[in-house]
Structure formats: structure tokens, C-alpha cells
Write a structure and sequence with these properties.
Elements lengths: L2 H15 L11 H24 L7 H11 L9
Length: about 80
């Protein structure tokens, strides 16, 4: 097995194993704590999304409704 294949195999194992290292830097201790809390919040939201599912947002429902609305025949004050 060549070095490239071994590195790819290690990378795949790390990605599928759920292991990650997030390195965070900041100029001050206060800024570092704030960044840490943001990362912890994002991690909790990601875990909840994986375990419980997600609902598309940000106007995705409106975009999906465009096709259906193209076929609607409106008249009078419905326009």
C-alpha cells in the first residue's frame, strides 16, 4: 500500500469515526471563551440535527412552491 493510499485510508477512518479536532485562536481570553461557546453551540445544534432531523428553512419552502404556483389560475383580487 503506497503512502497516498494509506493517508487516504486514515482520512476516511477519521471522517467516518466521528473524530474531529477544532483549533481555535484568539487575541484575548474573553474572545477565546466567546468563540468556544459558539463552537459548542454549533456542535450541539449539529448533533441534534443528526439525531432528530432537520427542516429546510431560509425560504426553501417558497422556492419549492414556485412550481406549484405557476399552475394556479388566479382571477380578480387573487392576482
Amino acid at each position: 500500500m503506497c503512502i497516498r493510499d494509506r493517508k487516504l485510508q486514515e482520512r476516511m477512518a477519521k471522517l467516518s469515526g466521528g473524530v474531529a479536532v477544532i483549533q481555535v485562536g484568539a487575541a484575548t481570553e474573553t474572545e477565546l471563551k466567546e468563540k468556544k461557546h459558539r463552537i459548542e453551540d454549533a456542535l450541539a445544534a449539529t448533533k441534534a440535527g443528526v439525531e432528530e432531523g432537520i427542516v429546510p428553512g431560509g425560504g426553501v419552502a417558497l422556492i419549492c412552491a414556485i412550481k406549484a404556483l405557476d399552475n394556479v389560475q388566479a382571477e380578480g383580487d387573487e392576482l
